[in-house]
Amino acid sequence: MTLPVERSRSRRPVTWLTLIGVLLLPAVIGGILVGALYNPTDRLENITAAIVNDDKAVELDGQLVPLGRQLTGGLVKGADDQPSNIDWVISNDQDAAAGLADGTYTAVVTIPENFTAASLSTRPGETPVKATIGVQTAPDARVVDGAITSALATTATSVYGGELSSQYLKNVFLGFTTLSDQLGTAASGAHQLADGASKAASGAGDLRDGLGQLSSGASSLADGASQLAAGAGPLADGATQLASGSTALANGTRDAAAGVNKLATGADGIAAGNQQLATQINGLADQIPPGFSDDAQKLADAAPQVNTALVDAAAALQKAAADCTGTPEQCQALRDASDAANEALPQATQTVTRIGDLAGQASQLPAGIRAIADANQQLADGATGLAGGAREAASGLGTLAGGMDGIAGGATKLADGAKQFGTGAAAISSGAAQLASGATGAEDGAAQLADGVGQVATGTSSLADGLDSAVAQLPTYTDTQATTLADVVADPVSATGADNSLFGLAAVPLLAMAVLWFGGLASFVAFQAVSARALTSRRPSALVALRGFAPAALVGAVQGLLVAAVVQIASKYDWGDWALFALVCVAAGIAFAAVHQALVAVFGGAGRWIAAVIGALALGASIVSTVPPALAAVASLLPTAPAYDAMLGALSSAGGVGAGVAGFVVWAVLSLIATTLIVVRRRTTSARAAAQPA
């Protein structure tokens, strides 16, 4: 079945088969290109590549670390977010080289033998070496196969290197935390040491003061003991005199008793004897030293205090000997003096107690003697009345004589005790003097100790403050914080929104524009641009031009719709965006039909050649931004440029749909005007041409 459409360069009409072929050509080409190129990373298994692992494992902490094997496993396993992976084959150097030469392998990834050693070279004491892998592509590989293989290997090594760096940095950050904890512990210990040293310095100062007081007290004790020893001599002499006087008194009392017995025979003799006795007793009382009674009473009252002082002195001497910090000789002298004082202490306290008792009794002696003298005087005065009681007086005088004998014996013992007391007091004085000397030396040592410990406290406090400052300046991290920070530092910069697809967002509009352009070219390979009957036609030139344009425009519109359908099947765009894209494709197909009609009408067969060049230039200038500026400038003036811009704006946020549509509409209008002018020109001819047979 034929159609009323003129075939280009032939008188035969256009058939439906020709029309279907022209209609489907852009859709078939577009489908092939989109199907072959769209999302190539989803079909990576079609690429076969070999992995050669020459890496040698390294022993670390007693365990072998095969990082090359781990990288090989990571490449073979692929990424979780990547639905497809290259068909990796684990091979060796010989097989990989042979497979690369005969086309079995598209590429070969080689992991060198020092990969693990280089990866672990960041350890302390090692020389850092960067780990590398080799990527080799087959000479007959597809255009992008090598780039895909290289990109996957590079990404894998980059991620693997980032993990190594992240682990290394994590250990460094956690090392900061460990160091901070250890320095904090050291700072706490230093603070405790400084506090202890301060307390020790204070204690050493107290020890120095206590030793000073001990030295002063020991000196006072030595002085007091010397005074006691000095006073014990006169006390012994007085007690001796008391004993002698008491003996004489006892003898006189006995004589008085004998006289009383004689007076018993006569009152006159008794009176004379009593007077004589009273005189003798008064004389005896006069022989007692003045203040004897008070001194004896004071001595009796001082006995408990002396005993207390002796006990305290012995205890102080013993404590000083136990706490001695002087020289060994001084300490030994203190211990010897303490032992001697403790041995003499019981006897000394007993003697002092006896002396006190005797002194208390002796204090009553002068009053008793005076009372006897007064009694004898009264007897002398009342001798007449005493005659009857003379015998009783004689008996009383006998008793008095016995008491005086006791007083004499007690005074003798008092004299002996006073002498012993003097000896003990002298020993105490000597020991106290040694104690004072030793305490003075210990006081000097304690002062030096206090100064030294104070310096230790100051230095330790400074150390603690310095450690606190170091702890405050050191950062600390938890495991989670260290992991996060290490990941960021290992890969500090990342790009978001970047499209790493080899078939990007701009590829679909580019392919759609290209296939529609070449579809329009195909239309005027089959269709006649200007009717061969234009010269004889009665229609206006514009209608003649539109008559040639109409079938191509209809084909272009259907081609645009078919191309948009193929794109939607492959890409699955949002229906709103696709609808706008489909309208642009339909409009572009119609506009391209007008442009191709004008090119063929103006230039004839060369117009098709020019159209092919325009299509190639449009593709070349839109694939990569590194195109030469001159070519880019020329491409921006072509009718394909606004069509591409409008299609891209319909599928993305680039915008410019209206401007693009307006651009290729202007091209379509200009093309129709040019075609009309060609029709006008062809409708004029010379007489010779008209006379020639058709």
From TrEMBL:
SUPFAM superfamilies: Adhesin YadA, collagen-binding domain, Methyl-accepting chemotaxis protein (MCP) signaling domain. Residues 25-179 form the DUF3533 domain. The chain crosses the membrane at residues 16-38, 502-527, 548-567, 579-602, 609-637, 657-680. It is found in: Membrane. Its main location: membrane. InterPro entries: DUF3533 (IPR022703), Phage_infect_YhgE_N (IPR017500), Serralysin-like_metalloprot_C (IPR011049), T7SS_ABC-Transporter (IPR051328), xxxLxxG_rpt (IPR023908). The keyword Membrane applies. It is a multi-pass membrane protein. Keywords: Membrane, Transmembrane, Transmembrane helix. Pfam families: DUF3533. NCBIfam families: pip_yhgE_Nterm (TIGR03061), xxxLxxG_by_4 (TIGR03057). This is YhgE/Pip domain-containing protein. It comes from Microbacterium phycohabitans.
